[in-house]
Design goal:
mainly beta, six-stranded parallel sheet, 18 strands, globular
Length: 177
């Protein structure tokens, strides 16, 4: 799907299911969620996906509130949101905002440079641990550049280890910023 935008939508599922409510699959491009109320998390996939000015509640089973997979590249804009995390994602080696923590989301199939804009968000949780990451990105095979813009975020959490970690499992470590 291309050019699909949810604006002011209320999206939900059974938060106990562990399946994200707002899920765009791997060939989505230029899609996004704007001013939405999402109960059950978001799975952005594909390229050029936005999550802007939303109130997003995670699952009661899995920790990541945003869990990307099948990332083609492009610009992922995650801006002005309020994320509520109920389970510590570190238990599954993931971040609250997660790009490939538990699966190969960024692989040789990521054929374009990737930039993740993580700005002006608030993360709210009392379930995080001392090893938990807030934005976690793992390169599992791409040679494309991975850039991160992380600024102006608020963390209303009980504990955490790092704000951003870009990890190289395989592929090439390269970036512009």
């Amino acid at each position: 799907c291309r050019g699909l935008k949810y604006i002011g939508a209320r999206i939900s599922n059974d938060r106990a299911s562990g399946t994200h409510a707002a899920d765009m699959h791997g060939n989505a491009e230029h899609c996004g969620y704007y001013k939405c109320h999402i109960m059950g998390g978001v799975s952005p996939q594909g390229a050029d996906v936005s999550i802007v000015d939303c109130d997003v509640y995670g699952s009661m089973v899995t920790g990541p509130v945003v869990y990307a997979s099948e990332v083609l590249g492009g610009h992922y804009r995650i801006s002005g949101n309020r994320f509520h995390c109920f389970v510590d994602p570190q238990l599954g080696s993931r971040g609250v905002i997660d790009f490939g923590g538990n699966t190969g989301a960024i692989t040789a199939n990521t054929t374009r440079d990737l930039s993740v804009e993580f700005t002006g968000n608030t993360i709210v949780s009392d379930a995080l641990g001392a090893l938990t990451g807030l934005l976690y990105i793992r390169n599992s095979g791409t040679s494309k550049k991975i850039n991160v813009d992380c600024r102006g975020n608020n963390f209303d959490v009980n504990d955490f280890s790092y704000a951003v970690w870009v990890r190289l499992a395989s592929g090439t470590a390269d970036s512009d910023f």
